[in-house]
Amino acid sequence: xxxxxxxxxxxxxxxxxxxxVLASPTGLIPRLGARLAQLTFAPELLLxxxxxxxxxxxxxxxxxxxxxxxxxxxxxTRHVMMGxxxxxxxxxxxxxxxxxxxxxxxxxxxxxxxxxxxxxxxTSYWVPRHQPRVFVDRVDMVSGIxxxxxxxxxxxxxxxxxxxxxxxPDRSMRLRxxxxxxxxxxxxxxxxxxLTVPSEVPVTREPxxxxxxxxxxxxxxxxx
Length: 224
What we know:
Blueprint: H1 3-14, E1 22-25, H2 28-39, E2 47-48, E3 53-56, E4 59-63, H3 66-75, E5 78-82, E6 86-87, E7 93-94, E8 97-98, E9 106-107, H4 114-120, E10 122-127, E11 153-159, E12 162-165, E13 174-178, H5 184-189, H6 209-218
Parallel strand pairs: 1-5, 5-10, 10-11
Antiparallel strand pairs: 2-3, 3-4, 6-7, 8-9, 11-12, 12-13
Helix pairs in contact: 1-2, 2-6
């Protein structure tokens, strides 16, 4: 078992209890997580091949052309797991630029679908490198809105160190669990703002034998 396997399971858990919503994972680890969830505890989860076909495992089970996704977004029946170049304590996300808007030091993706996602349906984030330049006190530009700006629900942030959520009175970021081998101090040192830390922080659960076998089947070349 690797840290990547733990992250796959943590991403899968983000969709637990969602019911028949469209899961839209961005990146390999979230994609493996969504497929793992569908093949284990969330068989009703909807997944696409990225174009127009709905899949269950490797089998086609329906048709969802891209134009129809906008209706799913507007209806709120979607849970996307996006990336983030910057995140603040309330879950405001930046994927647009680094530095001053008028003279940025880095050009990134642009806002993409982040505004529509965060105002319409549940959004989570996957951050492969938990570090202070990602977890910042104030994002340089708001691409996806956070809880202080009216987001529907920013559910979890899964990183290579921990799982974070927003289960606090002001809906600011909280440390939910640390991955095996990671300490609370490690996470705090890698975060550029104060986190809410419960009195007891559990360890992120490891994959079961069955889950690990599925992950291996889904990623036989070990790209994760």
